[in-house]
Design goal:
Blueprint: H1 2-8, H2 18-22, H3 26-55, H4 81-93, E1 96-99, E2 108-110, H5 114-117, E3 119-121, E4 124-126, E5 131-133, E6 142-152, E7 154-163, E8 166-174, E9 183-191, E10 194-203, E11 213-220, E12 223-228, E13 231-237, E14 245-249, E15 255-265, H6 269-277, H7 284-289
Antiparallel strand pairs: 1-15, 2-5, 3-4, 5-14, 6-11, 6-15, 7-8, 7-14, 8-9, 9-10, 11-12, 12-13
Protein backbone atom coordinates (compact mmCIF):
# COMPACT_ATOMS: atom_id res chain seq x y z
CA UNK A 1 0.00 0.00 0.00
CA UNK A 2 2.92 2.33 0.67
CA UNK A 3 4.23 1.66 -2.85
CA UNK A 4 0.77 2.33 -4.26
CA UNK A 5 0.60 5.63 -2.37
CA UNK A 6 3.97 6.72 -3.77
CA UNK A 7 2.87 5.86 -7.31
CA UNK A 8 -0.76 6.99 -7.36
CA UNK A 9 -1.43 8.80 -4.08
CA UNK A 10 -4.46 8.44 -1.81
CA UNK A 11 -7.03 11.00 -0.87
CA UNK A 12 -7.93 11.44 2.78
CA UNK A 13 -11.54 10.63 3.51
CA UNK A 14 -13.39 12.41 6.28
CA UNK A 15 -10.08 13.75 7.57
CA UNK A 16 -8.62 10.30 8.14
CA UNK A 17 -5.78 8.91 6.03
CA UNK A 18 -5.25 5.20 5.28
CA UNK A 19 -2.33 5.25 7.70
CA UNK A 20 -4.65 6.17 10.56
CA UNK A 21 -7.13 3.46 9.51
CA UNK A 22 -4.42 0.79 9.55
CA UNK A 23 -2.82 1.95 12.78
CA UNK A 24 -3.16 -0.77 15.44
CA UNK A 25 -2.49 -0.35 19.10
CA UNK A 26 0.10 -2.66 20.70
CA UNK A 27 -2.47 -4.19 23.01
CA UNK A 28 -4.69 -4.99 20.01
CA UNK A 29 -1.76 -6.81 18.36
CA UNK A 30 -1.23 -8.93 21.48
CA UNK A 31 -4.93 -9.80 21.61
CA UNK A 32 -4.87 -10.80 17.95
CA UNK A 33 -1.81 -12.99 18.40
CA UNK A 34 -3.41 -14.72 21.38
CA UNK A 35 -6.62 -15.27 19.41
CA UNK A 36 -4.76 -16.73 16.45
CA UNK A 37 -2.78 -19.09 18.70
CA UNK A 38 -5.97 -20.32 20.36
CA UNK A 39 -7.66 -20.81 17.00
CA UNK A 40 -4.73 -22.85 15.66
CA UNK A 41 -4.64 -25.04 18.79
CA UNK A 42 -8.41 -25.67 18.68
CA UNK A 43 -8.28 -26.37 14.95
CA UNK A 44 -5.49 -28.93 15.24
CA UNK A 45 -7.21 -30.60 18.20
CA UNK A 46 -10.44 -30.92 16.19
CA UNK A 47 -8.55 -32.45 13.25
CA UNK A 48 -6.88 -35.02 15.52
CA UNK A 49 -10.19 -35.94 17.14
CA UNK A 50 -11.88 -36.33 13.75
CA UNK A 51 -9.05 -38.56 12.52
CA UNK A 52 -9.19 -40.62 15.70
CA UNK A 53 -12.95 -41.12 15.37
CA UNK A 54 -12.56 -42.10 11.74
CA UNK A 55 -10.17 -44.89 12.82
CA UNK A 56 -12.59 -46.40 15.34
CA UNK A 57 -13.91 -49.83 14.27
CA UNK A 58 -17.58 -50.16 13.35
CA UNK A 59 -19.71 -52.73 15.16
CA UNK A 60 -19.54 -56.02 13.34
CA UNK A 61 -20.79 -59.51 13.98
CA UNK A 62 -17.57 -61.05 12.65
CA UNK A 63 -15.34 -62.89 15.07
CA UNK A 64 -12.07 -61.10 15.73
CA UNK A 65 -8.94 -63.26 15.89
CA UNK A 66 -6.72 -60.44 17.12
CA UNK A 67 -6.54 -59.34 20.75
CA UNK A 68 -5.69 -55.77 21.81
CA UNK A 69 -2.08 -54.98 22.61
CA UNK A 70 -1.36 -54.37 26.30
CA UNK A 71 0.35 -51.20 27.45
CA UNK A 72 3.93 -51.34 26.16
CA UNK A 73 4.93 -47.77 26.96
CA UNK A 74 8.64 -47.87 27.87
CA UNK A 75 8.35 -44.58 29.82
CA UNK A 76 5.13 -44.88 31.86
CA UNK A 77 6.02 -42.01 34.17
CA UNK A 78 6.33 -39.39 31.46
CA UNK A 79 3.48 -36.90 31.36
CA UNK A 80 2.39 -34.55 28.63
CA UNK A 81 -0.38 -33.68 26.24
CA UNK A 82 1.16 -35.66 23.39
CA UNK A 83 1.57 -38.76 25.55
CA UNK A 84 -2.06 -38.48 26.65
CA UNK A 85 -3.29 -38.43 23.06
CA UNK A 86 -0.91 -41.23 22.11
CA UNK A 87 -2.25 -43.45 24.90
CA UNK A 88 -5.85 -42.79 23.88
CA UNK A 89 -5.51 -43.81 20.24
CA UNK A 90 -2.24 -45.75 20.12
CA UNK A 91 -3.75 -49.05 19.02
CA UNK A 92 -5.60 -47.36 16.14
CA UNK A 93 -2.90 -45.04 14.88
CA UNK A 94 -0.10 -47.55 15.00
CA UNK A 95 -2.17 -50.35 13.38
CA UNK A 96 -1.26 -52.74 16.22
CA UNK A 97 -2.23 -56.40 15.88
CA UNK A 98 -1.86 -59.05 18.56
CA UNK A 99 -2.61 -62.76 18.72
CA UNK A 100 -2.33 -64.86 21.87
CA UNK A 101 -3.79 -67.95 20.12
CA UNK A 102 -6.74 -68.30 22.50
CA UNK A 103 -9.13 -68.07 19.53
CA UNK A 104 -7.34 -70.76 17.53
CA UNK A 105 -5.21 -70.63 14.40
CA UNK A 106 -7.76 -69.29 11.92
CA UNK A 107 -5.58 -66.28 11.06
CA UNK A 108 -2.57 -68.39 10.05
CA UNK A 109 -2.27 -69.98 6.62
CA UNK A 110 0.27 -72.27 5.01
CA UNK A 111 0.58 -75.15 2.58
CA UNK A 112 -1.26 -77.45 4.97
CA UNK A 113 -4.30 -76.97 7.18
CA UNK A 114 -3.60 -75.41 10.57
CA UNK A 115 -4.44 -78.60 12.43
CA UNK A 116 -2.18 -80.77 10.25
CA UNK A 117 1.23 -79.76 11.57
CA UNK A 118 0.89 -76.91 14.11
CA UNK A 119 -0.16 -78.00 17.60
CA UNK A 120 -2.05 -75.68 19.96
CA UNK A 121 -2.31 -76.41 23.67
CA UNK A 122 -3.39 -73.98 26.38
CA UNK A 123 -2.72 -70.90 24.26
CA UNK A 124 0.79 -72.07 23.28
CA UNK A 125 1.70 -73.04 19.72
CA UNK A 126 4.35 -75.39 18.41
CA UNK A 127 5.04 -74.39 14.79
CA UNK A 128 6.08 -76.85 12.09
CA UNK A 129 5.93 -75.92 8.39
CA UNK A 130 5.86 -72.22 7.57
CA UNK A 131 2.57 -70.43 8.24
CA UNK A 132 1.95 -66.71 7.67
CA UNK A 133 -0.25 -64.40 9.74
CA UNK A 134 -2.88 -63.13 7.30
CA UNK A 135 -3.65 -59.76 9.02
CA UNK A 136 -0.01 -58.71 8.54
CA UNK A 137 0.34 -59.70 4.88
CA UNK A 138 -0.08 -56.19 3.39
CA UNK A 139 2.36 -54.39 5.70
CA UNK A 140 5.77 -52.99 4.80
CA UNK A 141 7.37 -51.18 7.77
CA UNK A 142 6.55 -52.48 11.24
CA UNK A 143 7.73 -53.77 14.60
CA UNK A 144 7.38 -57.51 15.13
CA UNK A 145 7.47 -58.70 18.72
CA UNK A 146 6.82 -62.14 20.16
CA UNK A 147 7.44 -64.36 23.18
CA UNK A 148 8.78 -67.84 22.63
CA UNK A 149 10.88 -70.70 23.95
CA UNK A 150 13.40 -73.04 22.39
CA UNK A 151 12.34 -76.62 23.00
CA UNK A 152 14.96 -78.20 20.78
CA UNK A 153 17.72 -76.42 18.90
CA UNK A 154 16.09 -73.19 17.60
CA UNK A 155 13.29 -70.62 17.45
CA UNK A 156 12.46 -69.66 13.84
CA UNK A 157 10.48 -66.79 12.28
CA UNK A 158 9.87 -65.05 8.96
CA UNK A 159 9.19 -61.40 8.06
CA UNK A 160 8.49 -59.38 4.92
CA UNK A 161 6.85 -62.57 3.71
CA UNK A 162 5.18 -61.64 0.42
CA UNK A 163 3.95 -65.25 0.23
CA UNK A 164 5.07 -68.74 1.19
CA UNK A 165 7.79 -68.64 -1.50
CA UNK A 166 9.33 -65.21 -0.83
CA UNK A 167 10.41 -64.05 2.62
CA UNK A 168 13.28 -63.25 5.00
CA UNK A 169 13.99 -65.85 7.69
CA UNK A 170 15.85 -65.78 11.00
CA UNK A 171 16.66 -68.43 13.59
CA UNK A 172 17.78 -68.03 17.20
CA UNK A 173 19.89 -71.16 17.63
CA UNK A 174 21.11 -72.94 20.76
CA UNK A 175 24.38 -74.50 19.61
CA UNK A 176 25.12 -76.53 22.73
CA UNK A 177 23.96 -76.75 26.35
CA UNK A 178 25.99 -75.13 29.07
CA UNK A 179 26.59 -71.86 30.93
CA UNK A 180 29.04 -70.35 28.41
CA UNK A 181 27.78 -68.28 25.44
CA UNK A 182 26.04 -70.91 23.36
CA UNK A 183 23.78 -68.95 21.02
CA UNK A 184 23.90 -68.25 17.33
CA UNK A 185 21.80 -66.44 14.78
CA UNK A 186 21.04 -67.86 11.33
CA UNK A 187 19.51 -65.69 8.62
CA UNK A 188 18.67 -66.23 4.97
CA UNK A 189 16.30 -65.12 2.25
CA UNK A 190 13.90 -67.31 0.26
CA UNK A 191 13.15 -66.16 -3.30
CA UNK A 192 10.84 -68.11 -5.62
CA UNK A 193 10.90 -70.97 -3.14
CA UNK A 194 14.70 -71.29 -3.10
CA UNK A 195 16.81 -70.54 -0.04
CA UNK A 196 19.71 -68.15 -0.67
CA UNK A 197 22.63 -66.71 1.27
CA UNK A 198 22.37 -68.52 4.58
CA UNK A 199 24.63 -66.88 7.15
CA UNK A 200 25.32 -68.07 10.71
CA UNK A 201 26.68 -65.66 13.30
CA UNK A 202 27.80 -66.38 16.90
CA UNK A 203 26.10 -64.36 19.63
CA UNK A 204 27.47 -63.30 23.04
CA UNK A 205 24.46 -64.86 24.75
CA UNK A 206 23.65 -67.89 26.82
CA UNK A 207 20.22 -69.30 26.05
CA UNK A 208 18.45 -72.18 27.71
CA UNK A 209 15.79 -74.66 26.79
CA UNK A 210 12.33 -73.88 28.16
CA UNK A 211 13.08 -70.22 29.05
CA UNK A 212 10.92 -67.38 27.71
CA UNK A 213 12.66 -65.03 25.29
CA UNK A 214 11.14 -61.79 24.06
CA UNK A 215 12.22 -61.12 20.48
CA UNK A 216 11.74 -57.79 18.71
CA UNK A 217 12.35 -57.22 15.00
CA UNK A 218 12.28 -53.70 13.55
CA UNK A 219 11.50 -53.75 9.82
CA UNK A 220 12.15 -50.31 8.31
CA UNK A 221 12.97 -49.78 4.64
CA UNK A 222 15.94 -51.99 3.79
CA UNK A 223 17.19 -52.32 7.41
CA UNK A 224 16.15 -55.05 9.84
CA UNK A 225 17.17 -54.90 13.51
CA UNK A 226 16.73 -57.84 15.86
CA UNK A 227 16.94 -57.79 19.66
CA UNK A 228 16.43 -60.45 22.32
CA UNK A 229 15.27 -59.37 25.78
CA UNK A 230 16.21 -55.80 24.90
CA UNK A 231 19.73 -56.61 23.64
CA UNK A 232 20.48 -55.83 19.99
CA UNK A 233 21.92 -58.92 18.30
CA UNK A 234 21.63 -58.32 14.55
CA UNK A 235 21.48 -55.60 11.90
CA UNK A 236 20.68 -56.73 8.36
CA UNK A 237 20.45 -54.71 5.14
CA UNK A 238 18.57 -56.03 2.08
CA UNK A 239 16.20 -54.50 -0.49
CA UNK A 240 14.86 -57.46 -2.45
CA UNK A 241 11.48 -57.80 -0.72
CA UNK A 242 9.67 -54.53 0.02
CA UNK A 243 6.39 -55.75 1.53
CA UNK A 244 5.01 -58.73 3.40
CA UNK A 245 3.83 -60.08 6.73
CA UNK A 246 5.21 -62.32 9.45
CA UNK A 247 5.26 -66.06 10.02
CA UNK A 248 6.80 -68.88 12.03
CA UNK A 249 8.19 -72.31 11.25
CA UNK A 250 10.41 -75.12 12.49
CA UNK A 251 12.68 -77.19 10.28
CA UNK A 252 13.48 -80.89 10.71
CA UNK A 253 15.01 -81.63 14.10
CA UNK A 254 13.85 -78.31 15.60
CA UNK A 255 11.07 -77.52 18.06
CA UNK A 256 9.89 -74.30 19.70
CA UNK A 257 6.96 -72.82 21.61
CA UNK A 258 5.24 -69.57 20.64
CA UNK A 259 3.13 -67.77 23.29
CA UNK A 260 2.02 -64.52 21.63
CA UNK A 261 2.89 -62.28 18.72
CA UNK A 262 2.23 -58.61 17.96
CA UNK A 263 2.87 -56.43 14.91
CA UNK A 264 2.78 -52.63 15.10
CA UNK A 265 2.66 -50.78 11.81
CA UNK A 266 4.16 -47.26 11.77
CA UNK A 267 3.21 -45.96 8.33
CA UNK A 268 -0.33 -44.65 8.90
CA UNK A 269 -1.02 -40.91 8.56
CA UNK A 270 -2.67 -40.70 11.98
CA UNK A 271 0.36 -42.36 13.58
CA UNK A 272 2.60 -39.67 12.14
CA UNK A 273 0.27 -36.93 13.45
CA UNK A 274 0.35 -38.41 16.96
CA UNK A 275 4.14 -38.78 16.81
CA UNK A 276 4.34 -35.01 16.26
CA UNK A 277 2.04 -34.41 19.25
CA UNK A 278 4.34 -36.54 21.41
CA UNK A 279 6.87 -33.72 21.15
CA UNK A 280 4.46 -31.38 22.97
CA UNK A 281 4.96 -31.98 26.69
CA UNK A 282 3.53 -30.27 29.70
CA UNK A 283 4.71 -30.54 33.32
CA UNK A 284 3.02 -33.43 35.09
CA UNK A 285 1.85 -31.14 37.89
CA UNK A 286 0.17 -28.80 35.42
CA UNK A 287 -1.64 -31.68 33.74
CA UNK A 288 -2.78 -33.06 37.08
CA UNK A 289 -3.99 -29.61 38.13
CA UNK A 290 -6.15 -29.24 35.04
CA UNK A 291 -8.16 -32.38 35.77
Amino acid sequence: MREAEDLYGFEETHGTSWRAVLEVKPEDKADRRGGIGTSIFVGVSVVVLILAISQLPMNSGAVKAVSPLPDANPHPNQGGFGQLIGNLIQSKTAGTLRDDFHTGLGGWEGFRSSSADWSLTGGEVRPASLRLWKPSSSLSNYELEFMGQIDHKSLDWAFRAADLHNYYATKLVMNRPGPLPNAGLVRFVVLDGRERERVELPLPLTIERGVDYRVRVSVRGNRFLTSVNGQLISSWLDSRISRGGVGFFSEDGESSVLKWVSVSERDSFLARVVSHFSLITLPTAAVAGSQ
